[in-house]
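Obj.: predict assembly geometry.
Materials: sequence records (below).
Method: joint structure prediction, all chains together.
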Amino acid sequence: MPKSKSAYSVPTKKEKSDTYIFVVWVDNESGVLARVVGLFSGRGYNIESLAVAEVDAVKNISRITIVTTGTPQVIDQIKLQLAKLVPVHKVAEFKREDKNVIFKEMALFKITGKKKKMEKCLNACKKFDLVILDETKTSKVIQITALRREIDKISKKLKPWGLISASRTGAVAMTRGAKIFN
Amino acid sequence: MPKLYTGAEIVFKCLEDQKVEHIFGYPGGAVLPIYDELKNHTSIKHILVRHEQGAGHAAEGYARSSGKPGVVLVTSGPGATNVVTALTDAYMDSVPLVCISGQVPTHLIGTDAFQECDTTGITRPCTKHNWLVKDINDLPEIMHEAFKVATTGRPGPVLVDIPKDIQFAKTKYKKPKKEKKLNRKSNNKFSQKQIDQLIDLLKNAKKPVIYSGGGVINSGPKASDALREFVELTGFPITSTLQGLGAYPGDDNQFLGMLGMHGTYEANNAMHDCDLLINIGARFDDRITGKIDEFSPNSKKVHIDIDPSSINKIIKVDLAIVGDVTKVIGRVNKTILKNKNGHSKSNKSNIAKWWEQIQKWREKESLNFVNSNDSIKPQHAVQRLYELTKDKDTYVTTEVGQHQMWAAQHYKFNKPNRWMTSGGLGTMGYGLPAAVGVQIAHPEKLVVDIAGEASVLMTMQEMSTAVQYNLPIKIFILNNQYMGMVRQWQELLHEKNYSESYSEALPDFLKMAEAYGCKGIKAENPSELDEKIQEMIDYNGPVIFDCHVDPNENCFPMIPSGKPHNQMILGPNDQEENKIKGKGKALV
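Observations (raw structure tokens):
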């Protein structure tokens, strides 16, 4: 390591990072997404994916779902820092492995090529709630919902079979059973 | 039908309802309607600064010394960008500021209009919250909420950006609502169970130390009273961060002095060797902790803080109590007293050995320096200033650098809110405008800015403000012709390559004082120092005091070099054995 002559300490050993999903309820007002995202970039936290939309038009509440990685200490900080923001109502966080929470992402794929190859694509996608949105003789636009890693895998697989364009959402999350986050 | 008011009128009605008496500002195109309205509100006095950064720091000095929020009024574009440093400074040091900025009219926002900038975008990371008022009907509520956000919980700066057309538009006025809930951001979440846990730790501690910080000051004078009672009840030693000085009397025997990079030998060793560390309103700043891995390795750690995000951010603690210091320590004291009533079992005898150890560390006299008859040593100058002003309830501000550390080490503060310094951001140029703000809040008190010649030149223009309002601030410049702290690091870490840290062509401060219309005093010799300082104190008006000090003096003691608290460099005599080497350089 080159000798640092900065005014600050050298980093100490790092703990293991894990993937977490944050769900943040915010007032749907201008600039609120910038505050949340700015907090992540300003404090050096990572964003893997992001999904945001209004969920309660009467109370004017938006729900932001953020997938991030960090050590337990960093995840704790993210939660506490988010909770400090004035337009934030509540924050929940889940480990990606959490069995009590459903995580879903959606992807749109455009596939072109010979009929046989396109059929192969459709077959491969069947288990991911496949919906065919558009069809021509030489192309198809399909929709699947799955986990991030599943979509990663399938899109890799479909590439040689004629996948020419992919559009993906960030993850959204919901707990199982009758309970809601609190 | 209720009366309609213009946006500008509403701004002032809100300020009146929030009991604002002073605002610090600078006019410009986008705030002219608000300035036009100023004449109709005689209970509010406007202090015209010379640069918007000065307005921000003056408001900080005002807030820190009075406990009330500081209010800043600036125009759009450069007005707003100039105040960013002060907002960031206030954010780092938890100072309540409400900044009102003008903005170009709403229909011009986003068109790169004259003096337009994305003020809310620029200030988002350096405020607790900010608002762009797009609808006149929102203005009263936003103004009141701004004060609420700035002053509740962990205090901090907020900004309200008001486009010019909104300042002209009319609406009904609304009084502040009683107890509007801020999205459940409650700050007193502690339970008696946690207090009892703390009491248990207190009972069993053999080597305890209390480490108090700026949170005690921010919690109000009652917090300092509670802290003093707590220290008395427990008999524990107490050390303080830079921002916490004054919460506990600096000349008391249980006080170990400041801790951290330039803290005392006894304070830092106590932090390292203790078995119970009680952090009250401090945040484990990196200037305090030194090397994290070896920070206070054998202690149980307790953290009392109003900001939940401060807990476990840097140092993992064993017991966290989230709450206002006054309330938490008040409850702790009550519990201790209640427990004592039955069977008075103080653990003061438990810690007698610990005090003996501390006494041994004290004998090192780590703040010592080699005094001289030929040149004024900067430490000596601060000591003399202290001796000659200590009976006057003096308010002290500082700039940033060596002089700041010497002031913290050698000036003993006995009351809270008497010490205003830029700790978190380390803003050179803070002290002079801060002194302006302090003097506005306390017109009858002695206000001294202990300054360095490099720092003070950054905001020197505010002398003009001091003269305009006849504010008798004393600018006590420890003039060593260097950016002293930079020079010190270069000496210790960069093989004495004093790259750009020497100020050639410094102004003649006496002539400068004359030019501003205030008094200039110069001291070059230790024998004349007392007399000159007395002359400064006795003069009824602003003074620039040019105190020529030894340019080669370094600030000790010092935690160097990737080392933990228990391995400090002491004064010149100790240095040979403790050269800073290799990896350690990174830590200074």
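Conclusions so far: The longest helix of chain B spans residues 325-342.
To do: check interface contacts against the pulldown list.
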